[in-house]
Fold PaaX family transcriptional regulator C-terminal domain-containing protein.
Amino acid sequence: MQNNGSPQADEVELRPLSARSVVLSLLLGLHPPELPVKDLVRSVEPFGIAGSTLRAALSRMVAAGDLRRADTVYRLSDRLLERQRRQDDAVHPETVPWDGDWEMVVVTATGRGPAERAELRGELTRLRLAELREGVWLRPANLLRPLPDSLGQVAERGTARPDRPARELAANLWPLHTWAGTGRALLDHVARVRHPSERFAAFAAVVRHLLADPVLPPELLAADWPGERLRAAYADYRRELAAEARA
């Protein structure tokens, strides 16, 4: 039974499956991220995507710069390889034991337009930082990930130990209760769906949800935090998809 306004298993956000989304999700889960067209045709059949529909989508994706084609093999473009790296980091984030320090980024650049400010906010959010107040971004210093060189041109980095209790501060910076409720609803949903297209859509939602996981130290999270269970479920599903695609 769900409570406190947490999403029910049938209320999770599932997006419709297009040929493009299926192809991208398949390739994003493969290393190396490439498949011959005959294997792509076979892999998308369970989702009701016809071969002619797939080939039209592949042509559009090559033209848009999503894919590269070499003979009959399609591979993710360099731009989408970065997206694959972020997805891999979401499934297997690299962390260290937390000593109580907080990572802090203070935006120092001025005179930027709305588009530049929005781009910077998006980049800081992807780095799993949260905004304490305008221009000041924080997170516990337990997460290892590369930071873009361009960040040094617009912000100063450092560490801090806020006076505010750590659990209280984390709960203020991230919607932890909502994230956990949606995560548990997703786990319930993926456990009961069986049709390939339904499972595919459900695990696509799992990936999107993991990208929003702040990856906080365990001592700042509730005991039943679903992050690791979601990662394990998706890793199993990705291995299953990769085995079928490579079969």
Summary: Confidence is low (pLDDT under 50) at residues 1-6. The domain at 175-246 is CATH 1.20.58.1460 (Methane Monooxygenase Hydroxylase; Chain G, domain 1). The longest strand covers residues 102-107. Residues 29 and 88 are 8 Å apart (CA to CA).
